[in-house]
Amino acid sequence: MTTLYGYFRSSAAYRVRIVLNLKGLDYDQAPVNLVRGEQRDDAYRARNPQGLVPSLVTDDGVSLTQSLAICEYLDERHPEPPLLPADPAGRARVRALAQLVACEIHPLDNLRVLKYLTGELGVDEATKMTWYRHWVHEGFAALEAMLSREAGSGDFCHGDAPTLADACLVPQVFNAERFECDLDAYPRIRRIAANARALDAFRRAAPSEQPDAG
Amino acid sequence: MTTLYGYFRSSAAYRVRIVLNLKGLDYDQAPVNLVRGEQRDDAYRARNPQGLVPSLVTDDGVSLTQSLAICEYLDERHPEPPLLPADPAGRARVRALAQLVACEIHPLDNLRVLKYLTGELGVDEATKMTWYRHWVHEGFAALEAMLSREAGSGDFCHGDAPTLADACLVPQVFNAERFECDLDAYPRIRRIAANARALDAFRRAAPSEQPDAG
């Protein structure tokens, strides 16, 4: 059985849960409690030296790290339904939208960075929240512009079916809501996220639905 | 003619230059001066709403953003020499190594973040350097462990020819050196980076070789 090492609130694990569900794959979950720091334990680092979630061990024993690499692996091994369009330019657009979330927003706002801010840098709670929202707004403003301007957009980020871009967008929207970011300026993002969240694959991947949800 | 919008010291633009060179593709450069903030000008944002470099416009008019998406597009359109191995597990490993740099190190240490630290957060120069080096060491320790432990490694990150992972590693090593990070603890990273930098494609992509190098 495929095993996902994750955490219910981890945005990167949430992406992989969405993709596993879209592909109709069964999997076990092995929760790694990020708040208790279990991702830094030797036992977990033996599996993933990065000390990050998610990691995935497939039913044939392949051990994978980094959420986008995991998602593309699942797409290559289980091509239906596709996570990426067939044309190279469309594939590049979907990857760019996914990476705008995964390389420009999420890395700045994840738990270890927020802990460094309040710990090593000694910033107060309000300054931390301003930091968090700043990077969400920088990224979402760009994403909203791309989704509004570019012909590829549809009911989802690219066309009318979910892709890798939606699997990244929805967890980021969830996080932004949790940190009370004002999303009024992003109607297209909100509409696409609502469309995606209405699908069973996304609904079952939500943090509140996970076995370790606390 | 293909046009790369970049900046000589941008780590993400450097990745794309390496890949363009590995593929033997000719391209023009349109420098965007990040220190002067040209990436935030309306003219550039009309091209890339993210206000980030690189972006690439291909000779047939396709406009692309996000360095890893650009690299994979180039690999799909120009398959030789391949940037990724043929087997899905190998492809996932190369992508994970690339993303460990592109999602876990670089986003925290790029210019706009360092500016936020010294500007909005008012941290001093020494604290900024500690921040910079902290994320390099977190990422490089994980990368060194993966490169040392995993069977896939060779003279390069994966096997004995350069892949997408090396195109990410070399610019990150360059940046780490520029910020005077002590890399003694990472012999495998240093050896692979030296092997890659000895290749003409990497040498011609170096910041010092670019038309806008100042």
UniProtKB/TrEMBL annotation, chains A, B:
UniProt EC number: 5.2.1.2
Keywords (A to Z) from UniProt: Isomerase
GO molecular function annotation: maleylacetoacetate isomerase activity
Organism superkingdom: Bacteria
Pfam families: GST_N_3
Gene3D superfamilies, per the entry: 1.20.1050.10, Glutaredoxin
Name assigned to this protein: Maleylacetoacetate isomerase
The species this protein was found in: Halomonas koreensis
